[in-house]
Structure prediction request, 588 residues.
Amino acid sequence: MYRTHTCGELRLANAGQEVTLSGWVQRSRRLGGMTFIDLRDRYGITQLVVEATAEQSLVEAASSLGREYVIQVKGKVVERQSKNPKMDTGDIEIIVSSINVLNKSVTPPFTIEENSDGGEDIRAKYRYLDLRRPPLQKALALRHRLAQEIRSYLDKEGFMEIETPYLIKSTPEGARDFVVPSRMNPGQFYALPQSPQTFKQLLMVAGYDRYFQIVRCFRDEDLRADRQPEFTQIDCEMSFVEQEDVLNTFEGMMRQMFRNAIGVEIPNPIPRMSWYDAMDNYGSDKPDIRFGMTIHEITSLVQGHGFSVFDSVPYIGAIAVPGAADYTRKQLDELTEWVKRPQVGAKGLVYVKYNADGSVKSSVDKFYTPEEVKSMAEAAGAVPGDLVLVLCGQKRKAQTMLGVLRIEMGNRLGFRDPKVFAPLWVVDFPLFEWDDETNRFYAMHHPFTAPKPEHLDWYYSDRKEDLERVCANAYDFVLNGTELGGGSIRIHEAGMQERMFEILGISKEEAEYKFGFIINAFKFGAPPHGGLAFGFDRVCALFGGQETIRDYIAFPKNNQGRDVMIDAPSEIDAVQLDELCLDIRKHE
Ligand code: ASP
Prediction:
């Protein structure tokens, strides 16, 4: 028997017991003839002691242990003299009677402890060593727990877990596809799924009225901290449901996940906000509602006073930053530079200091009387002591910039505690998004999303203004300013689907080529259906109180989309290329 207990298990109640432990040597140190060893496994760390009075051979064995040696020890559990309240096993230690080296280790390239001394690149190269560290083990344990909660909840609700293929044809999510050449069909390619969207809808046609899958999806996009080229979705679809049924079902799932995985009770019901309110008040379709500082439009109040910047734009909006009236000139200059960065894109920043004594000072004092400046501040929701920040431009663009500024100020003021959870459903999305550059409509969610039944007249109208007004039965699940998931009630009728492709400027031939199979399937009695998908990696990260998803994926890619541990992607040899009938062009 390699072990009687794990390294995270023993407590004071075990004192006096003879035990056997196996694990990795995290560190060992000699102190006045005694050797102390931290023995680690994924359950925790237990302190081992080889006493100065132990047999010579045992003392020698202990002193020859290197970091990350795998050992088995036998010994007796005793109460510690100096307890360590930070460790679960900190009340006890093991007086070692024998050491058996199960395997040696070369010296690891970085320390494998709670906080490692290794940089990101070296830890990525030796990911299997990094994965020995407690924070990553905790992260993957949380991921596992959440996956179990999802399965148990959905099983209880009658959902069937069904796998869908990875080697498919393009899906409609709108990102770039990863493609796989087919040896048996030279010159032809599979696409890896951006999501199982079309398959889950076909499963509804097939009568599997409650489907789910924890499934890998692939999107060839530029990467950011919270993006990976392959990522995992909790993908779900239901038949004979309306939006209300879908939202209720998945509120239940989230509630169980929060309660059972991290012991948090979320609001019941989860609040809802229309997309329009989210944009107008928060400048974002994924508002962080843990704090206020909402956007107020002040256009009519401030126009017509000779300030040409304000007079030449259709929209002027403001936020009131609580308690920030004492911002210095230097801080305001820095903030002005900050909003001018390309990531925000503002041309400038107007401010009003609403001082604690009720007086005002603004960067536009030339154009307004103090009373007018004060009413500007009050219209932005400010009270004495607040700093009002004003941005202007095209309505949605200015609102979005204010939304980014709001989040920045929320961060600076410490309003975004990762241990506070504020879930939200954003609903009533517009069905279409107009793009000036390409001069066409795009589906805001994806082209299988149904218009609201009460907007069908507009849906079949040819006027751009009508189409812009069509709302979808689409919904996003938002947590703390991050979109964790989204979905919609789908089109289940072939004619309505054809109209969708027409509006999106997808020709009959192209629609037939790309999605002919699903349009055809809709002719064979497709039930009304709808669903959604959550980004599982992001769910895990947020539940764990982190921003980046990488720690919650066992083997993630880096920012260049590379796995530096296995060194992928890599070239393939001439024989393989030949079999695939592929020639590689020199890359400039
Ligand atoms: N397939 C969609 C997505 O990946 C989710 C859905 O509509 O169910 O965003």
In short: The longest strand covers residues 18-31. The pocket of aspartic acid is lined by residues 173, 195, 197, 486-488, 531-533 (CB under 6 Å). The longest helix spans residues 134-156.
